[in-house]
Structures
1.
Amino acid sequence: MITIQVNASKTYDVHIGNGLLDQTGKYARETMGGEKVVIVTDDIVDGLYFSQVEDSMKQYGYQVLKFMIRNGEQSKNTKNYIALLNFLAQQKVTRSDCIVALGGGVPGDLSGFAAATYLRGISYMQIPTTLLAMVDSSVGGKTAIDLETGKNLAGAFYQPNVVVCDPQTLNSLPDHVFADGCAEVIKYGVILDEELFYWLRSPIIPQIERIIARCVKIKRDIVMQDEHDHGVRQLLNFGHTIGHAIEANSNFTVSHGSGVAIGMCIAAKISVSKGLCVKQCAEEIEELICAYHLPVRTGFTAQQLCLSALSDKKRSGSSINLILPERIGCCVIRSIPVDDLEKVISVGLANAGHN
Ligand code: GLY
């Protein structure tokens, strides 16, 4: 087992190890008080792991309640958020009780935002069961729900009390969901960790525990410097501005990981065109992404992508930051005037052989 401590506005541990689902009650008891635990999960994870976590929680004296949503991004909505708050109130959950997010980023983000706002804040635990949630969304305290007007538009920075990752849960993931997480892992390699990038050229499963730990450590170090996303944390958005634009243009039929994968390729090509990195760097990024069976091309135009990117919450005034690689393991944040964005994206698409 590997334990990584995060010292942000809250200090907490991220535990990573096979079989830890059976220890979740122990970690809950050590880090959160209370009598009741509300486990928020989805209708797929429920059948796979709920009873294991429930048993462990009961063993440590908790009364267990369940709030279930449908699997998928569409569940991260205001209706489920309000329903969860009402459920907590109806069940007389108090400030000393706690919420447990069991599943991927959707139960994680929804639970975290409910925990941040119910009674002005109660304890919560993350038990991520997807690679993406393990390496990204369960750590660092970004919580949010989607509004009709856009993704993640209402949320809070609110750190969990503890995170428990059991890599055995990855065995039940469909290949495309696992690949989504791989896109985020590749991202960490490109932005800050050349060695990790090269580890990914070997099969990932046999080294999954150390890879998850490496990503969590990178994220921990970034969050500890910039919890509220004003500076260096923006590096974690490598591939995301264009990736989100691709997701939005596809009406979310393109997954987050696929969008980010294409976004990283386009960003790398923009970087080459600006003379920030050599062509070989962009080629290496694209090769690794292809090796994980992730897409590297989009049919959307620069105009379509630019329009979506400009309504992204990461825009600030008359400019938008893009994260561009200088080499594997080193990226820079570049402010692009919004008036130039379409041209910049079209250069990235053209160099990538799009359209
Ligand atoms: N997922 C990006 C971040 O936590 O900042």
Note: The longest helix spans residues 175-192.
2.
Amino acid sequence: MKRTLIRSLEENLNKNVIIKGWVHRVRRLKGITFIILRDRSGMVQCVVDNKDPIIHGLKCESVLEVSGTVKEGKNSLNNFELAVESLKVLSKVEEDLPIEINSEELNISLDTMLNNRILSLRHEKKNAIFRIQHIIVEGFREFLSREGFIEIFTPKIVAEGAEGGTALFKLDYFRKDAYLAQSPQFYKQMMVAAGYERVFEIGNFFRAEEHDTARHLNQFTSMDLELAFIEDEQDIMDIEEEMLKHIINKLELEGTRCFKMLNVDIPKILAPIPRIEFEYAARVLKENYNKIVTDNDLDPEGERLLSEYAKEKYNSEFIFVTNYSRKKRPMYTMPKGINGTRSFDLIFKGTEITSGGQRIHDYDMLVESFEIKGLNHENFSSYVNVFKYGVPPHGGLAIGLERLLALLLGINNIRETSAFPRDRSRLTP
Ligand code: ATP
């Protein structure tokens, strides 16, 4: 007989089935024992006669194969239960669990949670995080594929950093210097230039920043897209907005159970996401919150206050900030006027989740931009030379998946939205 998922038991009332899963809880009464069995689709109460020798000494989280008949029976989980005919242990638990995972809330520190990652992920509420992640990633892929984008896979070992700065992990690559990629930037532009016009990638990237914050990881997942034949950066924001609407729709269709479990509301985009220029944002912060913006950039407090403003003024949990200064954006960014750029960030619930913009597609302008940044373009020749051979106007964006997920679910530390986070002190599991 084939295995039935717990989710489908209700359709099998009074029928014989085999289910398989983990022992979530055991409650022994005088003549019978209740075992709550859990599989990827849900939980069910199984009723076992105490004469069955297997139940004696059965530990939580053992893996069982259970056959029996689905019977009507109201309990805290379902309107049915399983009257067990036979039990088989597929994998036994050797020692006491280091953390208790069958409680309503997983009340342990973040470190304990991450040290015992596989067990903590078995907790329903932690398990839900990566189910939601899957819906987001699938939504991103689905929307872009429908819009004519193709998925690409770019190298993670590179000769030069794409984002400037020093936050690069250096490798010894057969006695040459190489680095772990900070982003797919050059390669996604090169694939646009190769004639694909519209490309996307969901990949892991690496930042060697010494930061130890609740919003940075040293390895993170970037959802990137890049598209050609745009008018300007507004087209990129349009596509991000449509893509986010698609993902939110999908979360409503497929993620409601998880969101309910986590007691979190799915955000809404009811009107166009407001777009304000950086200078205007700085003025808003000064006039409304007496917050002075320095260094042409928003710090975390600035982002938080601007989100507050967007909520009050536009009833929006999202806000685009555009036209960042040239000083603050990488060399590939299309300039606007003397000091500005055709760039934007998207801020969601108080934190930046996206950077994007139009890129330079003119060879001479690109060479000049490298010079302005004090970089030798010859060190980047395999990228820069592409622009000698006809590259259309284009642009794109990057969304940090773990950061988006954390903000979406109201999780304070980004380490919790990475299954196996990498930070300065964490290299295992
Ligand atoms: P921040 O200013 O928050 O450090 P950034 O400007 O360095 O971010 P970008 O290089 O513009 O980030 O990357 C685009 C997106 O990728 C960010 O909006 C963020 O969502 C995500 N991201 C970047 N660096 C990290 C990181 N170290 N950990 C997690 N996510 C990151």
Note: The first strand starts at residue 16 and ends at 28.
